[in-house]
Request: fold
Amino acid sequence: MDRGAVWQALGAPRDQVGSVNDPRTREECGVKWNEKWVYPRPDGSQRVVLWNRYDLLGVFRIAADGSCEPDPVLGK
Reply:
């Protein structure tokens, strides 16, 4: 999926870390990313969308304890 399709499916993120042009990478949920979209959830967890430039790396659910698991919300 491209950025526009993810935006349309999930809406605007509450927070964003990094940007498409940020050369710095970070690692989370077993992937290296340079942009993260954050969607807080009512149960205290977060849905995060991780990107490397324009490539969607995955959508993950981060539990309150920091554990990470894939979130199949987009079917990826």
Residues 3-10 form the longest helix (8 residues). The CA atoms of residues 26 and 32 lie 5 Å apart.
